[in-house]
């Protein structure tokens, strides 16, 4: 997992796919249109808005084929990072490239311009609400990078 801010980004040289995502991420803001945009055969982004889920009962997800770069464009949420062992809640779905897990999490507060990258197999619990904030709606860009 990598956690950073676009303003401090020095991860452009990890590989060509990450460099493409970072270039596109720097062009995005709260006015970026919703929906999916394909950048290459192996890289696309989904821009979405939603209300984050309560922290109670938070679950993690993992992917086998794709890495995620999750960039907050507007609003605020918590990103859960597993601490300790996870327990499978669902079997892996090859069609959706996702498995769901339960466990204990440490949380990062994600604000506009903050991003996290999770490689295939790395658990993450996105879209969690911090009930101490008044922000209830989030706009996020989720870049998907195929590695497998």
Structural topology:
Layout: E1 2-5, H1 16-25, E2 35-38, E3 43-50, E4 60-62, E5 66-74, E6 77-88, E7 99-110, E8 114-118, E9 125-128, E10 138-146
Task: Describe it.
The chain has 148 residues and is mainly beta. 7% of the residues lie in helices and 47% in strands. The protein has one helix at residues 16-25; strands at residues 2-5, 35-38, 43-50, 60-62, 66-74, 77-88, 99-110, 114-118, 125-128, 138-146. The strands form two sheets. The protein has a six-stranded antiparallel sheet, with helices on one face. It has a four-stranded antiparallel sheet with strand order 4-7-6-9, with no helix packed on it. The mean pLDDT is 93.
Number of helices: 1
Radius of gyration: 15 Å
**How can the largest sheet be summarized?**
6 strands, antiparallel
Per DSSP, what share of the residues sits in E-state strands of 2 or more residues? Answer: over 45%
Using the alpha-carbon principal axes, give the shape.
globular
How far apart are the first and last residues' alpha carbons, in Å? 17 Å
**Poorly predicted ranges (pLDDT <50, ≥5 residues)?**
none
């Amino acid at each position: 997992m990598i956690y950073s801010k676009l303003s401090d980004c020095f991860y452009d040289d990890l590989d060509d796919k990450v460099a493409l995502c970072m270039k596109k991420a720097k062009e995005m803001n709260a006015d970026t249109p919703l929906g999916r945009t394909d950048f290459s055969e192996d890289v696309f982004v989904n821009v979405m808005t939603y209300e984050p889920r309560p922290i109670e009962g938070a679950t993690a997800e993992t992917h086998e084929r794709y890495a995620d770069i999750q960039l907050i464009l507007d609003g605020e949420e918590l990103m859960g990072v597993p601490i300790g062992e996870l327990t499978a809640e669902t079997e892996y779905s090859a069609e959706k490239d996702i498995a769901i897990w339960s466990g204990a999490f440490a949380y990062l507060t994600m604000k506009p311009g903050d991003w996290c990258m999770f490689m295939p197999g790395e658990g993450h619990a996105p879209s969690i609400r911090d009930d101490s904030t008044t922000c209830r709606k989030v706009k996020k860009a989720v870049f998907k990078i195929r590695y497998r």
